[in-house]
Amino acid sequence: MKRVVVLGLMGQYPMGGMAWQVLHHVIGFQRLGYDAYYVENTGAPPYSPRERSIVDTARENVHFLRETFRRFDLGDRWGYYDCLSDSWAGMGKARAAELLEHADVLVNLCGATRPDPGARRHGCLVYVETDPNLEQVKLARGEPEARAFVDAHDVHFTYGWNIGDPACRVPTGGVAWRKTHPPVLVDLWESSARRRTAPWRTIATYRNRGKDIVIDGETYYWSKHRSFDLVMDLPKRTRERVELALVSTEEAVRERFLTNGWQLEDPHRVTRTAAVYRRYIQGAKGEFSVEKEDNVRLRTGWFSDRTVCFLAAGRPCVIQDTGFDRRLPTGTGLLSWRSADEALEALERCAKDYEHHARTAGAIAREYFEASVLLPPILEAAGA
Predict the structure, then answer these.
(1) pTM here?
(2) Whole-angstrom distance, CA of residue 320 vs CA of residue 245
(3) Cα–Cα distance for residue pair 66/366, rounded to 1 Å
(4) Which position among 134, 159, 224, 239 has the lowest Cβ density within 10 Å, counted as fewest Cβ atoms?
(5) What pLDDT score was predicted for residue 194?
(6) How far apart are CA 114 and CA 63, in angstroms?
(7) Same CATH topology for 3-183+371-381 and 186-368?
(8) Which pLDDT score, from 0 to 100, does residue 195 have?
């Protein structure tokens, strides 16, 4: 049985969404007949979503990993390097080192691990870029660190489905990017207990900083704040309830959402475990969401791993358009919008024939996002 090791950020950022990103890969590879493991060796300090800051102990992070993998019968298939104590949790240092050296495929999810050029490695190292644009711009600018990082991988995938297409302004940086989207395991999300009176939900940070890019003198923001501003008054214009698990410490921002009719939820409360995150999504009528401005304006075709969970749960999604209709069917179950009026119309149209849209949402997840559809091309590209 060939071995696949997934590298990620689940321990550094112990949140439900990050857990499912990893689980969909590890369990997905297992179901395809591979011996799959998770190893996290970023050397980065742990983050606490509860405190919204870097912390000086990884105790809660390790607990999150242990409990998540135990719940999904992966108890001995994970390892986490704690840089604060210079120790390994989970499988231990020797086992992790053996896997990293001898695995047939290493999937560097999010580019979480900086490849060690001096490390011995048997298998193919695959970069799965989940957050496109910045790396491509760095490569186009000729930044040596970015070039060294990307070139250390054997195969390159990106969630920027349209990168390399004339309609997308993101440069390729001289890399033959293969295209993919976030995988999901539909059977772990299916839920028929839908309530028409439930709110439309999403989880989002209002203002992100640190990855804005400039192309031809024009700035593209790695943030949702300008996108939210387009539809800030949407709840006032519809009978549909719109709820947001808002990541923002600014009281003025929260007050603005509340004044415009949004229902606000504590993001840590609804993402503190994989199970809680799943229940929060299954309890929604569907997802209404904006996307980061860079993906919207650059037409990257990017798609969210959070949204695929809503679809898999049979919850329709009304999502700001990033150009994903180049691959995905839209209009029923998955509805895209570019303006506030289009967003309103899509919500209202979906509500009028809700059950049909809900069934189609699940069908889209099975046909386009199921792990058995999206993971085999990664294995094929890796020669496994």
Answers:
(1) 0.96
(2) 17
(3) 29
(4) 239
(5) 76
(6) 25
(7) yes
(8) 82
Q: Structure tokens of 296? A: 């919207």
The residue type found at 170 is V
Q: How many beta carbons lie within 10 A of that of residue 114, not counting itself?
A: 15
Q: Which two tokens stand for residue 91?
A: 């499988």
Sign of CA dihedral 158, 296, 314, 11: positive
Please say whether the beta carbons of 209 and 250 come within 8 A. no
CA distance 10 to 107: 14
The residues near 142 (Cβ < 8 Å, ≥ 6 apart) are none
Query: Where do the domains of the chain lie?
Result: 3-183+371-381, 186-368
Do 308 and 182 meet the contact criterion of CB atoms below 8 Å apart?
A: yes
Per-10-residue mean pLDDT for the chain, 384 residues long?
96 97 98 98 93 93 98 96 96 95 97 86 96 97 96 97 95 97 98 87 95 96 97 97 93 96 96 97 97 98 98 98 97 98 97 96 98 98 94
- Name the H helices within the chain: 16-31, 59-71, 93-102, 134-140, 144-151, 225-230, 251-259, 267-271, 274-282, 293-298, 305-312, 340-352, 354-364, 371-381
Domain 186-368: which CATH class? alpha beta
DSSP H or E stretch at residue 48: strand 47-48
Residue 117: the pLDDT is 78
Return phi, psi of residue 239, to 5°.
-80, -15
Structurally, what CATH architecture does the domain formed by 3-183+371-381 represent? Answer: 3-Layer(aba) Sandwich (3.40)
